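# nightly structure sweep
# worker-07 picked up a monomer target from the shared queue
# config: single-sequence mode, recycle default, output format = C-alpha cells
# input follows
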Amino acid sequence: MRPTAFLYALLFCLGLSVLPGVPSVAEAQPVSRPAEAAAAVPPGPRRADNIEAELVPLSRWAAPGSTVVVAVHQTIAPGWHTYWRNPGDSGGPTTLDWRLPAGVKAGEIVWPLPTRQRLMSLVNYGYSGEVYLPVPIEVPASARPGTTLPLTVDALFLVCSDQMCVPVQMSLRLDLPIREGAPPLDPDHGAAIQAVLEAAPRPAGLDARATLQNGVLTLSATGGPLADLTAGAGLSRAYFYPFEGGIIDHAAPQSGQSGPNGLSLTLTPGGDLTAKGLNGPISGVLATDVGAWEITAQPGAVLAGTTGGKALSGEVETPSAGTRLNLGLILQSALFALIGGLLLNLMPCVFPILAMKAAALAASAHQPREARRDGLLFLAGVLATFLVLAGVLLALRAGGEAVGWGFQLQSPTVIAGLALLMLAVGLNLSGVFHVGAGLQDAGAGPLSRLPGGAGAFFTGVLAVVVAAPCTAPFMAAALGAALLMPWPAAFLIFLMLGLGLGLPYLAVSLSPGLLRRLPRPGPWMDRLKGLLAFPMYGAALWLVWVFSRQTGAEGLALLMAAALTTAFALWLFGLTQAQRVLGRSARLSGGSSLIALGAALVLAVIAGHAPVLGAASVAQSGPLASAPWSAESVRAAQAEGRPVLVNFTADWCVTCKINERAALSSPRVAEALKATNAVYLVGDWTRRDDAITRELERHGRSGVPLYLLYPANGGEPRILPQLLTEGVVIEALKGA
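# output follows
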C-alpha cells in the first residue's frame, strides 16, 4: 500500500478531515451552504481511478414550491466499494456538503439497503458496482419558471478494496430547470432512482423490543407488515443492520424465528453494548425476504407471538442500490401483460365488442379461409392499436405530460366521438344502413357483418379503444412497469397485452372443429345481428353518461343533438343505398347524408369543448359517505390515529363502478368503517388530474381502479385486490 494513501485512509477512518473544507466522517448529516463559487464547478460526471460520480435528477425539471429528488450516482470499479451510513467494522460513510442557492434546502440521504462485505474477521456494510444515493431538495416557491437551479455538492467517498482505502473528494454539479407543471421522470436515471426510493427501508409502524440477557441480545418485532405474516408464512430470512457501530458484533451470525405475530432475532452484542449495557433504544434496519423497514427497539421483554415458528436464516438477498431493468423483470411483466390481456375479454367494458366479434364469427363460421383471415386481421388491429396507444402515451410522458392507461377517455371530445361511433355501429347492426351492402351471399342479401378483412381489423381497433377503461388483474402491474421501462421493453409489454386480448378470437378462428359446431348462415343471422345491436346502444348510453359527468348540461345537450343528427345522417345513407339497389338516383339523399354527418361531427367537437362544471363532487352511492382524496387528507387522518381507505376511480371505469356497487356501498362496509373510525376518500380520475396520476405511479400503477388502505398508526398503505368483495374490505379494515 502506498504510504500517502494509507495515511489518508487512517485519518479518514479516525473521523478527521484531511482536505480543506471537507467535514469529518462523523458528520453524517448533510450540510448546506450558500452556492458560493458554484459556477466554477462544471456539470457532468467526475472520474477517479476507482470511482466515477455525478449528480443526477429523478425528474426532468423542478416546479416552484416542490420537493425534488436528486441522487449522487456512483459507478465503482470492480473490486472496490463505498460504505453505508454505518460502515460496520471499518470504513466511513459517504458525506455530502451542499452549496445551494438561497432558499433551497437539502434533506438527508435516503440510504439504500447495503450489502455485507466480509474481509477476514471483519464485516462491513456498503455498496459496489452502480449506486444511487437519493437526496430530497426543497425548491422555494419564489423560484422563477424558465430559470435554472444550480445544485452543487462536495462529496467525500472512502473507496476501499481488500488491500487499501482511498478517500476521494469530488465536487458535483447539476443545473436543474425550473418549470411549471408535474415533471416526468428523467429518461436516463429516473426509473433507477425511483426503484431505489421504493425499495429503501422506511418506518412501517413496527413495534420492537431489545432484550439483553446472559450476554445475548434478542430483538423482537411485531405489527405493521409483519402482522400479515402469520406463523412466518412467506418469511424465511431476516437480518438486522444497526445505525450505529458497537451495538452488535457485525461479523457474528444472526439467527431468528418467526411467530404468529412477528419475529425475533438472536444477536451477539458489540463492544459498546457489552461495556455500557442496554441503556436506551436501538435503531436500525430490519431486512427480510419480503421487505426492509426502519425500526427503533425499546428496551424490554421479548414481545409475545414472535417465537415458536420456523427458524429464520440470517442471509438476506440485498437488491442492488442502482437496480436496472433486467431481462427477468421484462419477461415477468410481459407474462403479466399476456394474462391481463386475456382477462380483458372477461371485463364488462369489453362486452359490446364481443357482440361485434360474435356477429363476424357467425358470418364466417363455415368459410374457414375467411375465418382465418378475420382472426389474423382482428389480432393485427388489436396489436396496431396497442402500439399506437403506447406510442402516444410514451411520447406524452417524454414531453412532460402526466398520463396513464385510459388517458384518452379523460377527454370529453374523445368520449363524444366514441359515443357516436357506438351509436353508428348499433344502427348498422339494426339494419338502418349497411357496410359492404354489395356483398351478397347466394342471394340471401347483405352479409350481416362488417365487410371482410377491413371489418375484422376495425373491430380489433375498436376493441382496444373500448377496453381502455378496464384494468384487469395482472394488467396493472405490467402497465405500471411498462411506463417506467425503456421504450423497446414498454412496446413489448403493450404487444403482449394486445396478444392476450386477441388470442381467444384468433384461436377460435383457427379451429375448424369449433367453427363447424356453429349453424350454417341463414335468417337466424339477421335476428342475431339485430339482437347484438343493443349492447352497442348500451355502450353509447354509458359513454353519454360519462360525458355528462365530465362536462355539464350544455355539453350534454349538444352531444344529444349530435347523436340525433348522426342517426338522421345514417338513415339517409341507408335510404341512399336502397335507392341505388333499385337503380334510382340518390344524389339528394346522399348529399344530405354527408351534410348531416358533418354537422353531427361539428356538434360533437363543440360539445367536447363546452364549459366544464366546477370541481366535480364525488358521487355518493349507498350509505358510504366519502370525501375527495388528497395527500394532505391522508396525513391528517393518520395523525388523528384513524385508518384511511382510498378509492381511486373514474366514471368511465366499469370495473370501478362494479366494485363500488358490490363492495363499497353496502351497509356492512359502512358499519365496518364506523367501527374502525376509518376515513373513506375517493380520488376521481374521470377528468385529468396530475396529482392522482402521480399517486398511481407511486404505487406502480398506470390506471384505475386502485384501492389503498393506510393503517391507523402511520406507514405505507396496503394495496387491496382490484376485484373487491364485502369480505375483503371488511377484513382489511379490521386489520388496519
